[in-house]
Amino acid sequence: SMSLREHALSLFRSAVDTVRPAPMLKRAVKLQGDGCPQLLVKGQAFPVKRDLYLVGFGKAVLGMAAAAEEILGEHLVRGIINVPLGIQESLQQAGMQEMLLKPDSKIQVIEGAKNNLPDPEALKGAVAIQELAEGLTVDDLLLVLISGGGSALLPAPIPPILLKEKEKLTKMLASRGAAIQELNIVRKTLSLLKGGGLARLAYPARVVSLILSDVIGDPLDIIASGPTAASSHSVQDCLQILAKYNLLHHLPKSVETVLSSSPTKPTALEDYSHVCNIIIGSNTLALDEAKRQAEGLGYATLILSAAICGEVGRIATLYCQLIRLVCLGFAGLGEGTLSDEVRGNLLQLAAELEIPGLNLAEFLQALRGLGPERPVCILAGGETTVQLQGTGKGGRNQELALRVGLGLHRVQAVETSSPLGRCEIVFLSGGTDGQDGPTEAAGAFCSPELVDEALQEGLGVEAFLSNNDSYTFFSQFQGGHHLLVTGLTGTNVMDIQAILIRAT
Q1: Is 305 helix (H, G, I), strand (E, B) or coil?
Q2: In this predicted model, what pLDDT tens digit does every residue of 142-181 receive, in sequence order?
Q3: Diameter of the chain measured on Cα atoms
Q4: Cα–Cα 20 to 30 A to 156, which of 113, 186, 248, 302?
């Protein structure tokens, strides 16, 4: 029989595969009929009256465009996509031909945004996309492909603002402690294409956006700074932020000009009746697929949340306590005082973490019904944060796995005849893009035995953690056996965690 670890790996792979560009597009998009062809996107029909155009920007967009062109065939007249510098070469070297465009493609590829920062190349691409959008007519259909990393690939400051002036302003804001949300509001306000600008320029053409979300909660106006979504912010919001950081009197002339001549209220929603935004890939969709697979393997499966966020140490505690609770339930102690205490701790922790949309009380109620007769699988996703203290090499997924390993070890050390000892437990955390931090791995596996087994090899888990050196630990421990290595996947819907527990 397959081990828990092999099951965890297969669940992770199936979750990622479902949001890989080609399968994701083929599932969501069909082209139907010859006489008056229609584009069907997740069941919604869009007539192709005249010409079909395509634009896109983001890290996963090359693979999405290759798949889209295959589906659209002759109907596609022309396309332009902005993708990260060097991506075609990386995919070529990784042997991922299916993510590359065919030699006779009608789509022009512009590579830019070196180090994920807007640059002249990205600006050139943004201008080309802008010009294409402006030339469209009422019978045209514009397909827009959007993925994470799209914001840096679509810099189009409103004239007379220069890219370097806009960049300098964002840097000043960042250095004064502005939050990412605040930076994005300022960027959107000073941009021709962000905050719904692309959709406004393409009017009166029909605009259909296909979005691969790498943001918690899939907010349309935040992903890639929302080029086709009505902005929920106004010029007033931008001015307030600039005032808050004492920058109102240090603005370039060009920025003052634009801010004083912009409309002060957000564009009314009716401006967007020609636009349809459709999320075709997200953490939620990936977790749903993993759940289907887990149930097929015989697990009682629950999804905790697709919006897990917060400091990695606290999220590790959340997972350790959940694992404890399941093991107590397996031991017939699900209604005892210890279980009540663990549930109390969990509810307190969840209240502090403020994970969007998480109803933990309801989740704990569902856990209550699970007995030892079936193995249990708990799935979750999102994006944790790591406070760097050391100079080691690691990533948030490997750090999370190592912290869960340590946490489980500590629980067992404190409890005599711990229920954990009567369960087989595997925890997995991985980045769906296949790269966790600046490492070769996507993430790592752990189990309650990890700390003791590592000690036998002379590896002290706590020392590696205090230096944020999780990758070095997992590379050395049992010859790298606990690393999750997938290679680049060509997609990104943040991270996925799986907890697998079987009564022994």
Answers
A1: strand
A2: 999 999 999 999 999 999 999 999 999 999 999 999 988 8
A3: 74
A4: 248
